[in-house]
Design goal:
By secondary structure, the chain is mostly helical. The protein is built from 9 helices and no strands. It has helices at about 10-25, 30-35, 40-50, 50-75, 80-95, 105-110, 115-145, 150-170, 175-190.
Length: about 190
Amino acid sequence: MARSKEFEENEVLDKAMKLFWEQGYEKTSMNELVEHMGIHRRSLYDTFTDKHTLFLKTIDRFGDRMNAKLAAGVKHSQTAAEALRFVFNFNINGEQGGPPGCMFINSAVELAARDEEVDAKATGSFTQLEELFTEIVVWGQESGEFTTEYEARELAEYLHSVSAGIRAMARTSVKKDKLERVVQLTLRMLDR
């Protein structure tokens, strides 16, 4: 008779996600995962198959969480500029209690050049964020907050590039006030 799982899958997936997010894929060993997740090695293999599959699942989990938080923050914003500030502040400050930086950026830098699956997940997340930026820019252009000198998609690509840089620098010792100045300049460039 098969034993039932003695853990909640999303709970242990969150623990693995945090460890991969902090350390990266290569630096994280199976022993660390087993210990950090609080499950037996056999349970890890039975549930997640192998380290790479587990890593891909944690990337998906990260993406789902971040997309939900960004969508909720944008939805509750009163103006397009407020929505952009929310997204950029989230890029700078991250998730409360989470490691600094962005798991997608970290993973892309570490693995995308040699791992097609990680590359696809990272570029997919970048596309989603550009779509969100496009929606915000269209909102701002229609409300008269943002310049119409450029197409919304062009501005969204620019905003995503700034966002990616901020998410990468948030992982370093760069001071938050410097990142906030970059955001302020970016917002001024969108002014009508």
